[in-house]
Specification:
globular; alpha/beta; six-stranded parallel beta sheet; 48% helix
């Protein structure tokens, strides 16, 4: 069995979901070949770095423009034509001819759009194309950019998104509620505490987007009986600004084993990215989200509060709110219980049921016998 997972690094959530799917598939199908391909880097190796840098600048400093684009395209129709479609499709054809995949999974809308367009093109030219396309939605959103007519199955984070896709014309039999993929380490996480101190985990994502006000960290340092860990990601400037300045605050840069930090935490403070939400669900650690600035994060935060698994801070400098939540044990326990209920819905086995769902639409028997 030869599986290609196509993604892009427009935010690390898509890449992280692809890596988690690769880990799961290799564990479930030991004889399979499972490869993750960054499509912009593959198609435009000299320009992809510029594209990713521009995207990072946009979500950091040009959020109103990003949100306007997101709202406008949110009112559009499925089967969108991406920019540079011709160039991407030409390189995608080369990739498929070289790899000959039996199954293609897309964890970014651009990749789903391109594969759907390629399948349409192949059908018109009489070329035989049997590899199913599975689209893995990595935000709690039914934005039309995810919807493409040549998709064989959708993996979605919640029942609400399944219903929303159905309202947009997607056959509900093609939609499987699996949650957003997380690494296996989160699925088997056990909590361990050292001493009686409460543990607060603050994460700034890959870009290390955290408050700049020193008074915020002064206030965190004063929360009684609390140890604070701050993960600054790849933001080296912020790491140097914060490291070693406060007695009760431990500062880390980029970490590859964030599950270890979550296993000790009583509360996570982070932006409400889709991957972070589901990592926290499997870790059963409630979240206080920074006020979401991006439109897709607002959808995630809305779902989070509706599920009762976290809260949205009133402002970026929310040390007082953090202290209040940490001191309210009953509030934390109730949110953790609701996370446990969600976690049980998304445990291993959902992906296998999804494969059977796809098999009802497209014959995958050759994959299982490969």
């Amino acid at each position: 069995m030869n599986i290609l997972i196509l993604t892009g690094k427009f935010g690390m959530g898509h890449w992280s979901a692809a890596q988690s799917l690769q880990q799961y598939l290799l564990g479930s199908y030991p004889g399979a070949s499972v490869e993750v391909v960054d499509i912009p880097a593959y198609a435009m190796p000299k320009l992809s770095g510029v594209m990713y840098t521009f995207f990072n600048l946009m979500v950091t400093h040009g959020r109103p423009i990003f949100n306007l684009y997101y709202r406008i395209t949110g009112k559009g129709r499925p089967d969108a034509h991406p920019l540079f479609e011709g160039m991407f499709l030409s390189r995608l054809e080369q990739l498929f001819r070289h790899k000959r995949p039996d199954l293609v999974i897309a964890t970014h809308p651009l990749c789903a759009q391109l594969v759907s367009r390629y399948k349409e093109k192949a059908g018109k030219s009489g070329e035989e194309w049997k590899a199913p396309l599975i689209t893995c939605v990595t935000d709690v959103s039914s934005h039309p950019e995810w919807i493409n007519s040549n998709t064989d199955c959708y993996l979605v984070p919640s029942g609400e998104i399944r219903r929303s896709l159905s309202e947009r014309g997607v056959d509900p039999r093609m939609v499987c509620v699996t949650g957003i993929p997380v690494r296996e380490e989160f699925r088997h996480l056990s909590h361990h505490r050292e001493g009686m101190e409460r543990e607060l985990l603050i994460m700034g994502g890959g870009l290390g987007l955290l408050p700049k006000n020193t008074a915020f960290y002064d206030a965190l340092n004063r929360i009684p009986h609390t140890h604070v860990t701050i993960i600054t990601g790849r933001n080296r400037r912020l790491y140097r600004r914060l490291y070693g300045k406060w007695e009760n605050i431990q500062v880390e840069g980029y970490v590859s084993h964030v599950w270890d930090y979550m296993s000790r935490a009583d509360l996570i403070v982070s932006k409400p990215g889709g991957i972070t939400l589901f990592e926290a669900i499997f870790a059963r650690v409630p979240i206080l989200a920074w006020p979401p600035a991006l439109q897709n994060e607002r959808s995630n935060a809305k779902w989070m509060t509706q599920q009762g698994i976290g809260w949205v801070a009133g402002s970026e400098n929310c040390a007082e709110e953090i202290g209040q939540i940490l001191l309210d044990r009953d509030r934390l326990l109730l949110a953790a219980y609701k996370m446990e209920c969600l976690r049980r819905q998304f445990q291993a086995g959902n992906f296998d049921r999804m494969m059977k769902t796809v098999e009802g639409e497209v014959s995958l028997s050759r994959l299982y016998n490969a």
